[in-house]
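In response to a reviewer's request, we include the raw inputs and outputs for one of the modeled complexes. The two entities were modeled together in a single run.
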Amino acid sequence: MWFFLVSDAFTFSSLIIAYGTLRHRFADIWPDANEVFHHFPFVDAHVPLAYVGLMTFILIMSSVTMVLAVEAGQRRDNKAVAKWMLWTILGGLIFLGSQAWEWYHFIVGTEHGRVLADGTVIHGANLIVNEYGESPLFADFFFFITGFHGFHVFSGVVINFIIYLKVVNGDYLKRGHYEQVEKAGLYWHFVDLVWVFVFTFFYLV
Amino acid sequence: MSDQHHEKKGYYTGDIHNEFIEEHHDPSAKKRIWKTFWILLTVTLFEVGIAFTSIPHNILLIIFITLTLVKAGYIVYIFMHLMHEKKIFQMAILVPFVLIIYLIAISLYEGSVLDVFWLTY
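The model returned the following structure tokens for the whole complex.
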């Protein structure tokens, strides 16, 4: 598991470094992320970083519940493992929902959009144009890197769910140890780890 | 001490290696988990907080990258239990990332030098 994670970390590193290189090259026309991501559900306010901060909190929280599940597994407390696994799955699902919401707002964009010299108006973003800046690269990298991470979260939730079913079924209790839970935990923490970097390089900087 | 003659508690992995894993009961484990959580949360809030101050961008960048690496360290060492692994294994996991530093260096250099070839985006 560890060596798979190292190779996956290299993939993410390459993506983020490619992003960094091109952002560095086009720094003058790169949009300010705070001007792009400033929505918050149910509130009509300009609150940059608030929502993505909340998403980070949710993912860190689900990492905590995962590590508590692993800890309960070391004590062979089957009930506690099942409980913490369920919280972890819930955290993952909330995170995925938040990301879908974020993508939706990014793609639909604002009402005023961006007006080009010839009068056409661009709303939101796709892979070719976006209203946030002259370069399509910003949206391309956003879609690709957060999408790739989101897919990791999705597969993590699926893996956690399978493990959860096996815990409820008593499989690990019969086997005598909870190593599978620890392995799924490693993957889940890795997903959290990648998000820490995505958060910094996409939203903070 | 009669305890020393008792069999150690643990389990066999049951796979091809059938390795014996000692059970480690660590009463402070839960406390450490929650402490790490508070550290991660505080650092994140701090990052969000200073993002809106008038600190020069270059200094902010250095602060953010340092704090990100601090958070990554806590996740890998505490949550992923890397600190419980053997030293040589820790090295096998961490040392390859030296290559990433090299990649960052050459990529940033490319990004600032190869303007002539990248006239379009």
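As requested, we also summarize the result in words. Chain B is about 55% helix and 5% strand. Residues 28-84 of chain B form one domain.
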